[in-house]
Amino acid sequence: MVTAAEVQTTVEAFEDPQFGKNLKSLKMLKGVSLDGSSATIQIELPTPAYPNRPALEDAIQSSVRSAHADVDQVNVQFTSVVRGKDSGAKVGLKVKNVIAVGSGKGGVGKSTVAASLAYGLKHYGATVGLMDADVYGPSIPHLLGATGQPAMKQIQTPDGKTIERIVPIEVDGIKLMSMGFMVGEDQAIVWRGPMLHKALTQFLQQTEWGELDYLVVDMPPGTGDVALTLSQMVQLAGAVVVCTPQKVALLDAGKAISMFKTVKIPILGMVENMTGEIFGQGGAKKKAEEMGVSFLGELPSIAEVRVRGDEGKISALVNEENPAQQPILDITSNVAMEIAKEILKNPTMPTLEIL
Ligand SMILES: Nc1ncnc2c1ncn2[C@@H]1O[C@H](COP(=O)(O)OP(=O)(O)O)[C@@H](O)[C@H]1O
Ligand SMILES: [Mg+2]
């Protein structure tokens, strides 16, 4: 009769199709038990946005059944714990992964993609924050229909000091910070370098983000100063570069990629937005290949995206059935998996308990 230890050995050697490594080295196997001819296998996914769980379940089941003739039932149970880079450690933030969403120029749908990504991650069950670092053209409050002013809160530190903290605005369970809450969206601000740095420091360091799996940051287009400040404060999980399929936009995206590389922010990949009749299709995928970065998916050009954004109901793109829903969830999964892959490749990841 087969033993639980033998089944465990089989499952440990099973190669995860997404990461191309066995479950033991990925530390994804959390338990194996055997009751007669029925095995129960507990798998801990590194992100709840792991794509196509049924396929993984099937593959594990067949691998166990084919290795052990006397096991006839295989139950696979999934849980997930987001693996993170401990992105915010340097500034005392309990944020596992900070994701920058950038672009070479404005108007390509960067804020739309950033907000959709936040809702996508939330949809999969992650705890999420969304920070609008586009201090020149904040649009996150508008897209989410968020109003109000963040409150200040006094906090006692363990050594008896009183410090002031900003309480972020919360919408649909997503914590938000934006200059739009402070100055009104239409008000133009002229920033000097030190002011910009100070504002971002407050947004990150003095805001009560709490524990987050992912903090999505909507970056201002182009310029490198915000990216530089950000990279000095937190260890970013990486940057998502958004572009439209036209040639010019792709050139700009190339510049954005170089800019992120210059300030040592890893590139998670490119998203093609507004794919469709007007702008064409496939340009970003080709560009991503050329530049040796991953392609994270495309969001078609559809009226629903613009209308929902204008209404302050960008949430509906993820939460209601519509043509943008699946593309957004696919992009979300790809981004989360890129981060997980990066971490699983990186030997400096915090060690997790082994079975
Ligand atoms: N996939 C899309 N389909 C249709 N309209 C879109 C799409 N993505 C963005 N838009 C619209 O394009 C405009 C610019 O988008 P926005 O996210 O504000 O861009 P950025 O942050 O890059 O300046 C907005 O009106 C938005 O609703
Ligand atoms: Mg924007």
Description:
This protein has 355 residues and is of the alpha/beta class. It folds into 2 domains: 4-80, 2-Layer Sandwich (GMP Synthetase, Chain A, domain 3), CATH 3.30.300.130; 89-345, 3-Layer(aba) Sandwich (Rossmann fold). 36% of the residues lie in helices and 25% in strands. The chain contains 12 helices and 15 strands. It has helices at 4-13, 53-67, 110-123, 140-144, 180-183, 193-205, 225-233, 247-262, 283-291, 303-310, 316-319, 325-345; strands at 15-16, 21-22, 29-35, 38-45, 73-80, 94-102, 128-132, 151-156, 162-167, 169-171, 174-178, 211-218, 238-243, 267-275, 295-300. The strands form 4 sheets. An 8-stranded mixed sheet has the order 10-11-7-12-6-13-14-15, sandwiched between helices. A 3-stranded mixed sheet has the order 3-4-5, covered by helices on one side. Helix 3 packs across helix 12 and helix 6 (193-205) runs parallel beside helix 7 (225-233). The radius of gyration is 22 Å and the shape is globular. The protein starts with a helix and ends in a 10-residue tail after the last helix.
